[in-house]
Amino acid sequence: MAARNDIAWCPGCGNFPIRDVLESALKELPVPAGSIVMTSGIGQAAKMPHYLEVNYFNGLHGRALPLAVGIKLARPDLTVIAYSGDGCNYGEGGNHFIHTVRRRLDITILTSNNQVYGLTKGQSSPTTDTGVKNLLDPQGNSNIPLNPLSLAITMGAPFVARGFAGEKDHLKSLLKEAILFKGTALVDILQPCVSFNRVNTYGWYRERVYQVEKPAENRYEALKLVDDWGSRIPIGVLLRDDSAKSRELKTLFGKSITREAVDQMVCTKCVMMR
Amino acid sequence: MEFTVLVGGEAGQGMFSVELELTELLSKLHYHLFATKNYMSRIRGGHNFHMIRIAETPVHALSGEPWDMIIALDPETEGYHKQDLSASGIFLPPGQIKEMEGIARERFGGVTAVNTMLVGLILSTIGCPQEKFSGITDISSNPAHLSAGFEFAHRWGLAGRYRLTPKAQAHCKFDGNQALALGALLGGCQFMAGYPMTPATSIMQYISTVALDHPVHFEQAEDEISAVNMALGASYAGLRSLVATSGGGFALMQEGISLAGMTETPVVVIVAQRPGPATGLPTRTEQGDLNFVLHAGHGEFPRAIYAPGTLHEAMVLARKSFHVADGCQTPVFILTDQYFADSVQMMFEDIPLEITRRDYGSFDASYRRYRLTDSGLSPLACPGAGDGLVRVDSDEHDEEGKITEDLSLRARMVEKRLRKFDFLRKETVMPSFTGNEASDVIVINWGSNKMIVEEAVRRLIGEGVSAGALHFSQVYPLTQEMAAPWNLKGKRLLSVENNATGQFAALLKRELGLTVDHQILKYNGECFTVRELSQTLRKHLP
Predict the structure, then answer these.
(1) What structural domains and CATH numbers belong to chain B?
(2) Which helix (H) or strand (E) holds A238?
(3) Long-range contacts of A124-128 (CB under 8 A, 24+ apart)
(4) Residue of B28, B214, B257, B349 for testing the chain A interface, max A β-carbons within 10 Å
(5) Closest by Cα among B452, B454, B446 to B478
(6) Smallest Cα–Cα separation from A169: which of A232, A108, A235?
(7) What is the pLDDT of residue B140?
(8) Do A98 and B222 touch (CB under 8 A)?
(9) Residues in chain A closer than 8 A to B227 (CB atoms)
(10) Helix (H), strand (E), coil (C) string for B318-335
(11) Which pairing describes strands B468-472 and B432-435: parallel, antiparallel, or unpaired?
C-alpha cells in the first residue's frame, strides 16, 4: 500500500473511505489474496488497484469490463472485480456495461459514482443530474442522468446494490456480499467529489440516503425502488436473485490442446465464406 | 492437362454448395484442385461466381485462361462471362439448369438436389468413373443426386470430354482461414474473442467449433474494442489469445494494440484485408492495410507482421506467432486477405504436430512484472500461480507495475520495450526465392500473391525468359540479412501488390534502402490471375 501522501486523490476525496473499506473487506473474504484480480480503466477511481495489495490489470478508459470478462473466462478460479468511475463504466464503457451484465459471469462491478469527471477537472458525467452546471456545459447539463441500477436490472443483473462512501460499515458489508455473490454483481457507490462537484456533497447525500432493510421482492419492485432519486435515495442490496444461473465455465488454464483437437480441425470441412 | 469451371448465379442459388461438395469430393478422389470465389455483400440476388481449377499437377492460383466450362444458373452469368469461354468450352445455360431442376423435383422432391447433380455432372466431364465413389466412406453428397448428374452429363455428351487423371498424393484440403485456425491451435491458442466481420469470421467459426470439445474458448464480443480487451485479459490470466478481424474492426482495436504494447501482454491479431477505405468492398480482396497494421496503435513498441502466401506458411506462421508474441511479450500480426481466406487449396507438406504452449517459471513475493533486464524481457507470470502479485498498467509504470511519472524511469522503460526488437531479429522468417537465381530481374511480392507470382514466373521461364521472384512472408521487421542472400542491390526489381500505392515497395525503400523499378498494382477488388500477371511481367523482362 502506497503512503497516503503518494495517493493521487484530493484530500477528503470520497475514494479514501471506499479504499479503506475495500481493503478490509478483501482481507476478510474467504479467498486467498493472490486469487483476487482487479481490473480498472482510467480516471481517479480507476487508480484504486494501485492502492491495494491485489493483482491488477489497469487498462484503458472504459475497458475495465472486457478485461474482466477475458480474465474470468480464462480463469474461472479467480475472483474478478472490475473497478472504475462513472465516466469509465457508464460513459466510455457504457456498451461494455450493458453486454458484460448480459454475459452472466461471476464478476463484481464496482463504480465510484461521483456524478462528475474528476481527473479531467470538472465536466458532466453520464450520471450528472439535469441542470447541474459544469465546465463544458455552463448553461447546465441538458441530458437526463443515466441510472446504472435500473440499466443493470433491465439487462438481467441478479445482484444490484448501492452504497455510500459516508457509511463505511454498511458499504463494507455490501462489498463483501457482492463479491461473494455467485453471479454478476453491481455496487454503485455514491462518492462525493470534494473538488469538482459542489452539488452532490457529503451533506447532500447524507440528507437523502436511507438503508433499505431487505432487497426488493422481484425485478419490477427493484426497478421501482431504484427509480427513487431525489429527496430520498435508497442504499443497500436492492435486488438479489439467487435463482439466477451464472454461466458454466470450463477449465482452460493448465490444460493442453491435444492431437485430437488438431485432428478435428484438419477434418473439418471448409465453411461458407463469411 | 487441366479443366476450369465457373459456376455463376444469384446469391442463394447454390453455387457455394456446388463448390464445397465438388472440392470435398475432388480432394477425396485425389484430383489436384484450386477454388476461389467472387461474391457480393448480400444474402440473396446479385451476381456471384465460383471458380474451380482441376489439374494433373498442383495448382494454387487462377490461371486466367478461358473457361472450359461455364454453368450459368442465371441469365447474368451469360452476359458477364460467356465471352471468356474457350473455343471448345461447354456452356450450360439457365435453360439446361431448368431441365435438371425438373428431374430434381420429380425424383428428389426439390430443386436443391441440383447442387449435387451439378457436382456429378462436372465429375463425369473430367472422366471420373462413377464406381469410384463406392470407395469413399465419408461421402456427404447424396449418391442418387450424384448419379442423376452423371446421367445428364451422358445425355448431353459431356462425359469424359476433359479426361483428367487423379494424381494428387496425400494432402490436406483447407481454405486459408482454416489453415490459420489450425496454426493457432498448434500454437497453443486457447482463447479467442471476436466480432463477426468478413472475411475473418470463418476463423472464429473454426475455433468455436473446436472449442465445443476441447480446452479452447471463443467469446463473441459486443464490438472489436471489447474483443481485443477480452483477449488481453485472457492472455494476462494465462492463456495464449487470438483476435481476428478486417480493417474496419481493426480500426476499433487500435487502442487495445497500444495497450498490449504498453502492458507487454502477448496477443496474436489476424487482419484479413478487404478493400477500404471505410466499408469499401466488403467481400473482395486487397492488400491495402499493410501501412495501417505497421503503424497501428499510438506510441512506440515492437511488433512483428507475417503475411503467409501458402496454406503451409499460414499454418506454420500462425503457430509461430504465438511463440513470438509470448517470447517478445508484444502484439504479433498476421496479414491475410479475402482472396486467401476464401480460396480452397491442397497442402502437401506435413503438419508440425508438436503443439506449443506458454510455460511460466516459478516466482515468489519479490516478483516484479516489469523488471529491467538486458534483453528488455521481464519474466512473464500470471495471477494466482505464485506468491507474487501480477500488476500491469497502461500508464507508464515502474518495475512493479505501479503508475509513475518519474521521467528518467520513463526513458528506461521505453528503452526496455524497444530492446525487445532483438528477440524479433533472432526469430526472422527469411523470404523465399523461386525461379532463376541468376536472373537480372527479381519480382518482389508478399502475402497471398506468392503462388500466383510463382506460377507466372514458371510460365515465363518455360517460355525461355529468365526470371526470379522473392516472396516475403515476414513483412516487418525487415532486416538486411533477409535481403542479403539475393544480391538485390545489383538487380532490377519489379513488385507485385494488391493495392494502389505500393505499400510494401515503400517499406522496402524505407527499411532496406531498396528501390523498386516498376510496380505492378491491382486494386479493383480482385486477385491477379497467372495469365494476366505473366503477360504484364513479360513486358518488363529482357
Answers:
(1) 2-155 (3.40.920.10), 173-347 (3.40.50.970), 360-427 (no CATH), 432-539 (3.40.50.920)
(2) strand A233-240
(3) A125/A85, A125/A86, A125/A87, A125/A90, A125/A91, A126/A86, A126/A87, A126/A90, A126/A91, A126/A94, A127/A86, A127/A90
(4) B214
(5) B446
(6) A235
(7) 82
(8) yes
(9) 66
(10) HHHHHHHHHHHCCEEEEE
(11) antiparallel
Predicted ipTM? Answer: 0.98
Crossing angle of helices B113-125/B15-28, nearest 10°? 50
Cα distances (angstroms) measured from residue B245 to each of A58, B72, B176, B195, B310: 25, 33, 14, 7, 20
Closest B-chain CA to A2: B402
Task: From chain B, pick out residues whose CB is under 8 angstroms from the CB of A67.
Answer: 229-230, 232-233, 236
Mean pLDDT of A16-45: 97
Q: Please, what CATH class does the domain formed by A4-246 belong to?
A: alpha beta
Inter-residue contact B216 to B210 (CB < 8 Å): yes
Q: Tens digits of per-residue pLDDT, B225-282?
A: 999 999 999 999 999 999 999 999 999 999 999 999 999 999 999 999 999 999 999 9
Give residue B252's pLDDT. Answer: 98
Closest CB to A274 among B23, B198, B392: B198
Angstrom distance (rounded) from CA A168 to CA A172? 6
Neighbours of B93 (CB within 10 A): 16
Closest Cβ opposite residue B236 in set A71, A264, A274: A71
Place of cell 476525496: A13
Residue type, B115: N
* A273 pLDDT above the threshold of 80: no
Give pTM, 2 decimals.
Answer: 0.97
Q: Give the amino acid at B223.
A: D
**Least Cα separation, residue B175 to chain A (angstroms):** 6
- Rounded Cα distance between A165 and A209, Å, is 11
Contact B335, B449 (CB under 8 A): no
Spatial contact of B481 and B428, defined as CB atoms under 8 Å apart: yes
CB B188 within 8 A of CB B225: no
Q: Distance from A274 to chain B by nearest Cα, in Å?
A: 5
**B114-143 pLDDT tens trace:** 999 999 999 999 999 988 887 777 778 899
Reading the block at residue A92, the C-alpha cell is 466510455
| N-terminal to C-terminal alpha carbon distance within chain B | 29
CB-CB under 8 Å, B186 with A262: yes
> What is the number of other CB atoms lying within 10 angstroms of the CB of residue A111?
26
For A258, the grid coordinates are 491435444
Cβ-Cβ contacts under 8 Å for A173 (sequence gap 6 or more): none
CA distance B356 to B349: 19
Q: How far apart are CA B226 and CA A96, in angstroms?
A: 7
